């Protein structure tokens, strides 16, 4: 069977279409299995719009594209099925599931609680805060407008890092772990938010205000700004259509690598 919506995926030249490495990259744990690598790759494919809702594919197609056997592919797909990314079709391969917008709403609500709690903690004098994380964020977001990046993929990654670093800097490892899981599950939606330049400009402005409030230990103001920032992104999620997803896929295929 051939994929109905992704006939040209094997020719896509990006980091997400590269063969799965046999040896873990620097910084990765040595005990990661081949199935772990395939799982991570397929999640990147979803986040990078190589696989989008409605796409159908077979285990053989994934095996050939990634240069691995079917066994780790099947193991990875079953794991993704449990997480609600794909479903198995009776005698017809697999399909990427449509977006569950009700679930995204709930995840954004949880994200709001975690991040606003974190910034309050960052502004409490008796808390042990990782200031190095905050300073690293300042190097990215507190720059003159002329030095801002217009690379949508880069800004999307920095945006994730901004919010994750705020939570991590607050010093609660369990809070950071839960927040990391939420971040991963809403990644594709957040990246769609960075396909338009006005949203990139707004993100720079809003992040700068939040960071300045945190660095000045103004907890209530930081939480208020952060809440408004997340609510704006949440509102954009409600406007997303499948057409936008396919436009993002096309832009990814035609953009210079």
UniProtKB/TrEMBL annotation:
Checking Pfam families in the record gives: FCD, GntR
Q: In which organism is this protein found?
A: Variovorax paradoxus
Q: Which SUPFAM superfamilies match?
A: GntR ligand-binding domain-like, Winged helix' DNA-binding domain
Q: Does the keyword Protein transport apply?
A: no
Note the InterPro entries from the entry: AsnC-type_HTH_dom, GntR_C, TF_FadR/GntR_C, Tscrpt_reg_HTH_GntR, WH-like_DNA-bd_sf, WH_DNA-bd_sf
Composition bias (Low complexity) maps to: 12-22
Domain of life according to the entry: Bacteria
Specify the signal sequence span.
none
- Annotated protein name in UniProt: FCD domain-containing protein
């Amino acid at each position: 069977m051939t994929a109905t919506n992704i006939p040209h995926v094997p020719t896509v030249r990006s980091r997400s279409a590269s063969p799965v490495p046999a040896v873990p990259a620097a910084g990765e744990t040595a005990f990661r299995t081949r199935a772990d690598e395939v799982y991570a790759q397929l999640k990147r494919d979803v986040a990078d719009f190589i696989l989008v809702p409605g796409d159908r594919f077979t285990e053989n197609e994934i095996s050939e594209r990634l240069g691995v056997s079917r066994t780790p592919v099947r193991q990875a797909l079953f794991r993704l099925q449990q997480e609600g990314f794909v479903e198995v079709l009776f005698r017809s391969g697999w399909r990427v599931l449509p977006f569950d917008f009700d679930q995204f709403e709930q995840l954004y609500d949880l994200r709001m609680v975690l991040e606003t709690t974190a910034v309050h903690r960052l502004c409490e004098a008796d808390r042990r805060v990782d200031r190095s994380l905050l300073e690293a964020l300042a190097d990215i977001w507190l720059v003159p407008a002329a030095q801002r990046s217009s690379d949508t993929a880069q800004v999307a990654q920095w945006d994730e890092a901004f919010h994750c670093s705020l939570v991590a800097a607050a010093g609660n490892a369990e809070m950071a772990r839960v927040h990391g899981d939420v971040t991963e599950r809403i990644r594709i939606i957040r990246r769609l938010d960075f396909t338009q330049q006005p949203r990139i400009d707004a993100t720079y402005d809003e992040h700068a205000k939040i960071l300045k409030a945190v660095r000045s230990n103004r907890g209530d103001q930081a939480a208020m700004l952060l809440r408004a920032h997340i609510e704006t992104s949440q509102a954009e999620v409600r406007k997303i259509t499948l057409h936008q997803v396919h436009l993002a896929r096309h832009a990814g295929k035609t953009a210079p690598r």
